[in-house]
Every structure is written in C-alpha cells, then in structure tokens.
Amino acid sequence: MHTARLIGTETTYRIGKIVCLGRNYADHIKELGNETPDQPVIFIKPATSVIGQGGEVVIPSYSGCCHHEAELALLIGRRAKDLTEENAMAHIAGYGVAIDLTLRDVQDKMKKKGLPWEIAKGFDTACPLSDFVPANKIADPHALRIVMKVNDQVRQDGSTALMLRRIPTILKEISAVFTLEEGDIVLTGTPAGVSAIQSGDVLCAEIEGVGRLEVTVR
Q: What is the residue range of 183's domain?
C-alpha cells in the first residue's frame, strides 16, 4: 500500500489515483514542439508508480529515452466532484514535490499512432513523490520556485506563477470528469528544461517552502 504523509502530523492517506495535467507551462509546450491545448490534457498514473524519498527509479527496458519533469503535487483531503473554482482549494490537504518520469520515445510513438500514453507515464517507479506540507502552511501555491537538478546540475528552474491553468481551474476541470477521493494526488504540470536521465544519475527536485525529493536511477 502506498501512502502520503502530512508533515508535522500523524495523518496519512492511502494513495488512490494520480491525476496529471500535461502542457500547463508555455515554455515546456514550446520545447517539445507541442500546441497549446484548448482543453486540459489529463492522464493518470497508478499508485503503484509511486516511490518515496531515497527511492530508486528503474527505467523499463522498452525505452531508450526517459525524461524528468519536476512538478507541484496536490494531496486531495476529501471527496470532490464537480468543483467550482471558488470551493476547489478547500479540498487540498497538502502540497508536495513530484517527479513525473516520462518515456519520451515511447510517448512520441504512441502519440503518432493515436494510442494512449500509459506505458510511457505509469510504469513502476514513474512517480517519485515527497511527503506533503499541510495546505495551510503555503500562503500562495502560485508563487513557488521549482528547481530540478541532475547530478547537482540545474536542469529546470521555474515557478508555479507560470502555470497556464491555475489550481482552482485544474481541480474544477478534473473533477468534472473524475471524482477525486481522499488520498488522490494531482500533478500540476512541469516548467521548461526537461531532459534525459540515465542509470547512475541522482535526481533532486525542490519546491521552496514545500520540500525536497531525491532519488537515484538504475
């Protein structure tokens, strides 16, 4: 069973589904040569893709190009369906750091064929995830610096201020499709700077005021 912990409390949540938003930062859309979407790009990772602090990423043998994507993660604290932008934030229990690992070569192949991306996004170890800071400890989740380092070299350095869709809108749009339940995780997209990783790399994602997450690659 995979669990999410609220820092400074005894509260833990059993992780359910991980709902992810793609193409939410303009510079990242540009670097991959994608079009800015009119509708939210939503996909899901299973709870079995989660590893924690100090864990080990295992790149599947069917891929030759795995990319890191540092993201702000939201921990859902109570059931949510058809949220409004006005009440959405009240359903967030905490904020964490996630690394959305993507098999870019596999994803590109699936996209060209019009097929789903799950094998590129939901493989075992594809979602390193930190513990969560209680939501009331973060004054403004739309003003947080996100830094991603690989072997101590900065690859991504952005801010949640650059999100195209802000968190209330994200939750409104997701909850119109999927009922969000206690323990579900929402990933909010990644800024520019994604790049390939390889065996032996040390990945470190940090979001100011939220936390630091370090994993290794095998």
A: 3-217
* Tens-digit pLDDT profile for residues 96-134: 999 999 999 999 999 999 999 899 999 999 999 999 999
Provide the 3-class DSSP secondary structure of residue 164: coil
- Each residue's pLDDT tens digit, 40-64: 899 999 999 999 999 999 999 999 9
Contacts of the segment 27-35: beta carbons below 8 A, 24+ positions apart = 27/158, 27/162, 27/191, 27/192, 28/189, 28/190, 28/191, 28/192, 28/193, 28/194, 30/192, 31/192, 31/193, 31/194, 32/194
Our CA angle for 134, 56, 69, nearest 5°, is 60
Residue 29 has pLDDT above 70, yes or no: no
Per the CB < 8 A criterion, the answer to whether 165 and 28 are in contact is: no
Q: What is the pLDDT of residue 23?
A: 87
Number of folded domains that form the chain: 1
Strands 50-51 and 127-128: parallel
CATH of the domain at 31: 3.90.850.10
Summary count for the chain: helices (H), strands (E): 4, 18
